[in-house]
Amino acid sequence: xxxxxxxxxxxxxxxxxxxxxxxxxxxxxxxxxxxxxxxxxxxxxxxxxxxxxxxxxxxxxxxxxxxxxxxxxxxxxxxxxxxxxxxxxxxxxxxxxxxxxxxxxxxxxxxxxxxxxxxxxxxxxxxxxxxxxxxxxxxxxxxxxxxxxxxxxxxxxxxxxxxxxxxxxxxxxxx
Length: 175
Description:
Blueprint lengths: L2 H20 L2 H12 L14 H13 L3 E5 L2 E3 L2 E3 L1 E4 L4 E5 L4 H14 L8 H16 L4 H7 L3 H23 L1
Parallel strand pairs: 1-5
Antiparallel strand pairs: 2-3, 4-5
């Protein structure tokens, strides 16, 4: 192992140790998985077990002042996306072609955006929102980690800086 690789390994180990000492378990698992996976397309669940969870989460977001719409296709910057949060209109749009379990994960992600810190850019906002979705949807960590793997270092910074807020947002959306 060359010096650069050993240095990276040491830094990653130190950062993960810091995160382990500070952050709760599920966020640590997401972080570890994010660093182990290669970036790639996420695979959406095609089942309907979360139908009522979608209804409950939609109601919570409505009470927080957000309108939920279902449409297809949804695009952002010319690319098709599963969901989008339009802040100035307080609207969350979810792809109506998704199965209920996938809708739940996407709605949890977009719900995370509604509470993200004001200082984040797009990549940081996605890190924050996907961490919230991991906690809310409780549908496993792998696909959430795969989604974040392109921005793992950015996400690590967001997780370290905002983990209490991430957990608070997840609790707001779940309770």
